[in-house]
Design brief:
The chain has 326 residues and is mostly helical. The chain has a two-stranded antiparallel sheet.
Length: 326
């Protein structure tokens, strides 16, 4: 019960941080709380939020996927190339892009599960491969001239509600369902807490690792398609900075880099914090280099806090175990 109360307290704290940021930027710049800017933030965080769903799965299993940024790069280039250079119908191009994203994630999962090599190394290698392939396809040039129906995916629905926001909410609902209401969600937490105990309990460790990375690849490609529709230009460097942003968002939201802890709600709030921070600092005319320094410090502080919290929790468990034995 105490652990549950502590988890709720952490999530409430994260929400308070978001509220304080909104209040601060509302005071600093009068343009922050305008309807147009809020819709702009919703469009900007949609891709990050969708990718964060799959990334949360990966982190909960004590893994990491450093290739998600360049998965986005490859997806936007391939999708754009299919529509512009090969004249493939935009719906079919999207479907093929989603299949490609899933295949990339599947490849990550298969290699990690069957070789036992650290996810950090495998996904770092995949990141470089995807970066090179995206440049080979685009030849380093932007791809433009997409069908109007495709570009309309970044527009509004009904009373101006951004389509990317709707897609993000649907994807998050799917992520919440998988994590909280399926047996695989419980397995993901088990893998992150103690992989050997999970194996002895009958969990198919390899299959679930493969599933996690395949889902991450699928959600990343969905986010990439929406980003392409919003930017209306496919470039190989499009997703270069996304890995850092999604990792920061998830860790800020309480998803442990050491595995076994985290919620979709917390990660969602983390995404909003990153989105509000990016937008607010931009409107306040803060230098891009200062923004990088701030984000790096925030990520370091969040990881340090997560590591120290876990170490403290482990000490408490050991002391309780010793007390029970005596």
């Amino acid at each position: 019960m105490n652990l549950k109360l502590w988890a709720y307290a952490k999530e409430i704290g994260i929400v308070l941080v978001l509220v304080l940021l909104v209040v601060a930027f509302s005071v600093l710049t009068p343009h922050f709380l305008t309807v147009s800017n809020l819709f702009n933030i919703a469009k900007q965080v949609a891709t990050l939020g969708i990718i964060a769903v799959g990334f949360t799965f990966v982190l909960i299993t004590a893994g990491i996927d450093l290739s998600v940024g360049y998965q986005v790069s490859l997806s936007v280039v391939v999708c754009g190339f299919l529509m512009v250079n090969l004249h493939v119908a935009w719906l079919l191009a999207i479907l093929l892009t989603l299949l490609l994203g899933t295949a990339v994630g599947l490849a990550n999962g298969l290699i990690i599960a069957h070789t036992g090599v650290a996810p950090l190394i495998i996904t770092l290698s995949m990141m470089m491969v995807l970066n090179g392939v995206s440049y080979l396809i685009s030849e380093g040039l932007p791809i433009i001239g997409f069908p109007k129906d495709f570009s309309a995916l970044s527009g509004g629905v009904g009373p101006g509600i951004p389509m990317p926001l709707i897609v993000m909410l649907v994807v998050w609902a799917v992520g919440v369902f998988i994590l909280n209401y399926t047996v695989h969600g419980r397995y993901f937490y088990a893998l992150g807490s103690n992989v050997e105990a999970a194996r002895l309990s009958g969990v198919n460790v390899k299959m679930n690792i493969i599933l996690v990375y395949a889902l991450c690849g699928l959600f990343t490609s969905i986010g990439a398609v929406l980003m392409l529709a919003r930017l209306n230009s496919a470039q190989s460097a499009t997703g270069a900075d996304l890995t850092f942003s999604v990792l920061t968002a998830c860790v800020l939201g309480g998803v442990s880099v050491m595995g076994g802890k985290g919620t979709m709600f917390g990660a969602f709030i983390g995404v909003l914090i990153v989105g509000v921070l990016d937008n607010g600092l931009l409107l306040a005319n803060v230098s891009a280099y200062i923004q990088l320094v701030m984000k790096g410090c925030i990520l370091a502080a969040a990881v340090i806090y997560d590591t120290m919290s876990k170490a403290s929790g482990d000490r408490v468990k050991r002391m309780k175990a010793i007390g029970a034995e005596n």
